[in-house]
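Bug #77: duplicate submission created two jobs. Keeping one. Sequence:
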Amino acid sequence: MPKDKFDAFVSYSHALDGKLAPVVQGELERFAKPWYRMRALRVFRDAANLSASPGLWSAIERALASSEWFVLMASPEAARSEWVNREVAWWVANRSPNRLLLAVTSGDFVWDKDVGDVDFKTSTAVPPALRGVLAEEPRWIDLRWLRDADLADASNPRLRESVTELGSAIRDMPKDLLIGEHVRRHRQAMRHARLAIGSLATLLVFLLAATVYAVIQSEEAQSQTRTATAQLLAATAIAEMEVQADRAQLLAVEGYRMQRNPRTAAALLDVLTASPHLVRQVPVGATVTAVSGSADGNTVVAGTDDGRLLRWRLDTWTLDEIRLGHDEILSVAISADGGTTLAVDGTVAVTWKATGPSSPLSFEAKGAVSIAVSPSGALAAMIVKNGNGADLAVALYDPATGSRIRATRSRKYWSDVGMPNESTVILAGGTGAWERMRTSDLSVSSYSDDTTTPAGDYAGGGSAEASYFGYIKYRQVVLQVNNNTSSGEIKGAEVPVAQPELLTIRNDGKYVAASGGGTLWIASTADDPGAPIQLTGSGRIDAMAFVGNSTKLVSAAADSLALWDISQHSRLSRASWVDVPEVANVGPPPRIAVTRDGKRVAVLGGNSDVGAVHTLDDSLVRSEPILPFYVEHNRIPLWSADGKWLWLVGAGGATRVLLGSGPDVGVWPAASDAGILAAGVSADGRRAVFVEAGGGLQVRRTSDGAVLKQTPGAPENPSLANGLSSADLTVAAAVSADARNAAVVQSDTTRRVVVTDVESLRSHELAGPPAQAVTFGEGYLLVVRENGDLEVWDQEGTARQRTVAGDAGYAVAIAVVPGTGLVVRLRSDGRAVVIDIPSGVVLGSLQLPPMTRGSTASPWHATSMVGAAGTVELLTATSGGSLVRWPMNDHVWLQIACQTAGRNLTVSEWRSVAAIDPPEDLSCGRPLD
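Kept job's structure:
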């Protein structure tokens, strides 16, 4: 490229993106770079390319004129910047807006599809110079997640993935090909590196004095290669997680195995949370041509293009198969209980029983193109065509013997057949026409010849029982009931599939699934349907079906089956069946405490009078609490060190003492009039420490509740309603795990943090801006500032170790997961952000399920979180919802990824990404090194 030419011009706010812009420029220039060139692209950024000159705008204008693309790092600061607006205005006046790319780093970008322009009322990140310029909604890159922490690091795989989106547009190369080019260039560089190392090793034979240096360099090169490979595996996993979930998970697992660090952990967490409704995948070795699911929700059957019939048990995750022949299986069907499976390939049919004789029954079914089975499995119906396909017949069979019961010629062409009950056969033709027959004599009971499908491109489909037919066009799904008693009832849904390819309908017509262009969506047809749900990670869908009337959908893409469940909130969350009582809008969040072994949890409903102790196990059966109780307002649950006793701590330290699985056994008297904000137990279990609302401390003997030490706090403000004080609603406090230190956020306007040594009762203030929350980790103190920053101090509060940048979008809830180095912060949109404290790196986020009842204006401000040491879990409780358990153990993360992928990474898949040899053992479930 000539010296004065640029591939792209980067426009940004120096105040906000002064650190991020150089990283974006560097990544664009380095990604997929040949080893012998300085850069792959030449990108203009004013601070990097301009020399001192009196004609600043003239220099920028020359750079604009010499650039092929314009990259706008959009933010409210950029929108207000005179220079950014001037640069944008020049570009849209002199160059094509189609060569303008957006990367939103802060604020909002909203497109008004009715107006056909940016919604400038709500879009805070768009400069005025873009008003009325864009002809259609542009593709834009979301970099706002970088505000969660200081992640502007070129080694961050998620940032590299985002910048690759820009690079693919600038280089006019599909993203997957660009990544492939990067991998090829990386391999080439590794080959040159190995050649150089080999040559150097030969020379060093004659240079004995440099032997030690050569060894060190070799080890360093191996370490760097290992690091680069791990990060490449992680980056590729992130790039593929929305199109090929199984491969993405396997790559992320291998990257983490190769090098366990925050970057590879972030990739692993990203792929685990990317497809929350994905339950499991399983390879089948051939293209799937037909699928069906049993009404009881426990079995899926599928046919392949190489003549195999598969039965996938969802309760045991076993996959069995038989072979019909070598021809493509055209249609499959399964009885309601999953006991009888039928399939046809145009020549033969087969009956496969789940119990009884192990050998399937094959019988002649020449010309059969579609098959159905009655709910009981006692009858089967087929559509049979003759040699030239002009005439069709409907035949009824006995699946147990393969004998034909009766048949009749069809009066018109049908393509699909279903049996909603034992007495009815429904025929459909894919255009809206239908016919219902009686199984007793195959006489027609009702029919419709109306064609309801529109002209032009559309995708049609029906339910497994053929009771519903529908089509999708222009993202609108229209449904009809295939009977004459519905008075022409029409249902519909909106599904954002621009180029639909397949449509399927649940047997009750309440849900539809549509795919096209590599996307898969499920939508409700209810009057108030809510937003459609996207199922990511599947790739292009070849076949799909609902599993009965459940929330499960099975899809087939290439040689893999995938099971989805829209009732599954996340693959990481574990059902606990523990209800969380609802609290009033002004009440505190629910209060939860878990025993140190993680086996029992106490749940109190904030300011309500309901509480209970529950056993935490892996049971999926709802069970009654082992200890329900009524409790006064604002009690704090606290477990003894051994989990034998549960203390319910109230105002002044007045405490009810309960056996962990039994009744009250005593009461500790109040030692003051102040409310209690936090409580903790010493490591040896002998002392309990209570923090009062005014900042005072009580140290009590756990054997009898005797007060050992006490310091007074500041007086509380006048009482509010329901026994609450303003201090109760505003002051935050915490006690360290060993009960040696306590921290409190003062309730005055300074919101300063005071840390007290429990042994000496000496206190001191922490320097810094106003705070809103404090908590202790293992040997450190965390302080949440009102601006959203998270400060990490030593436990005594004498030295600040680091600050993890945040913003005002965080809620107050924060929790440390013991034994992991992880802390979790809750955002105001319900995302629990997982942070690695030693490095300050944000690993990812977990979307918490919302409240299922109640009217709290913002349920996330009525959410509590706590870490469980014994089980290495995060426990979250939202008012009016349920307790949710989130495993935070990397062994469990790997296990979930491997189970969901359902297979192992192949050697060829490894070599397509990595330049070094794969491990001898590529089994996904092998132990960590």
